[in-house]
Specification:
Length: 295
């Protein structure tokens, strides 16, 4: 089987020979931005929305991407086509570029653009849809909106990694992170939804979350299905006593939650509303109207 080809600054390299400089500030300081994107049946799901969010993240950290939005979309499509994967995961990365060992970003030259396309099953496991996942409530708080806000999808994920390590040590699949006020924020790499009395509830951006592309699509799907949706603060007690809980994200897709910190969630997993949303998502995720056809 041929190695995947990686796009780096306009050229393709085999996975085993794809490299960046050790002086790249993305490597040295996590100074850069990224997107995770899925390909379903040859359609790059919500590609333009992902690319536009990448540019918003870059603007927030004053990183000038050396390509237009349309050129970036074309680079992603080209990388999908050259690899030929009809179902795959895309990692789109823009680093600050090569600099020196100092922090000063003015020392960096041209930013680097990297596109990786690989076949990757859901990050919490392919069977998690059927069995649900076990979470803990982490003692590591989500970075507040006045710090390294997760509204910016940057290369620095240490905050999430610390919570993930705590989950692993506890024998759980992942962790729920609270914001600086003690309200529910999100999981380490996915947004969170709860169902209470037939209403779908998810934390607002003010809780330090990433405004997820899949999150927005799920809210849209729920409204189409006649399910009321609210964005509001959720307390840990509300989380533990919800009828259903599920996670959403490009890497995770849609994953029901079976247990949080030893407390069983709901009567069945997945719950009825979670199942309905998963079914609708699967039905239309590869529709070209929900992305860009690459293959």
């Amino acid at each position: 089987m041929q190695e995947p080809l990686i796009y780096i600054d306009g050229e393709f390299y085999a996975k085993s020979s794809a490299k960046i400089s050790v002086f790249d500030h993305g490597f040295l300081y996590g100074d850069g931005v990224f997107e995770g994107i899925r390909v379903y049946g040859g359609v790059v799901f919500k590609l333009r929305e992902h690319v536009e969010r990448l540019y918003r993240s870059a603007k927030a950290i004053r990183l000038e991407i050396p390509m237009t939005v349309d050129e970036m979309v074309d680079a992603v499509i080209k990388t999908v086509r050259v690899n030929g994967f009809r179902d795959a995961y895309i990692r789109l990365v823009v680093t600050r570029g090569v600099g020196d060992l100092g922090l000063d970003p003015r020392k960096c030259g041209k930013p680097s653009v990297i596109v990786i396309v690989e076949q990757l099953e859901p990050i919490l496991g392919a069977k998690s849809r059927e069995t649900g996942v076990k979470l803990i409530i982490s003692s590591t708080r989500r970075d507040p909106v006045y710090a390294t806000s997760h509204e910016v999808k940057s290369l620095n994920y240490l905050n999430s990694i610390l919570a993930k390590l705590e989950a692993i040590a506890a024998g759980a699949d992942d962790a729920v992170m609270l914001d600086s006020r003690g309200f529910v924020s999100e999981a380490t790499g996915a947004n969170i939804f709860v169902v209470r009395s037939g209403v779908l509830v998810t934390p607002p951006v003010t809780a330090g979350i990433l405004p997820g592309i899949t999150r927005a699509f799920v809210m849209e799907l729920a409204r189409r299905l006649g399910i009321p949706v609210e964005e509001r603060d959720i307390t840990p007690t509300e989380l533990l006593t919800s009828d259903e809980v599920f996670l959403t994200g490009t890497g995770a897709e849609i994953v029901p939650v079976a247990m949080i910190s030893g407390v069983k969630i709901g009567k069945i997993v997945p719950g009825p509303i979670t199942s309905k949303i998963i079914g609708e998502f699967d039905r239309i995720k590869s529709d070209p109207s929900n992305g860009v056809k690459a293959l």
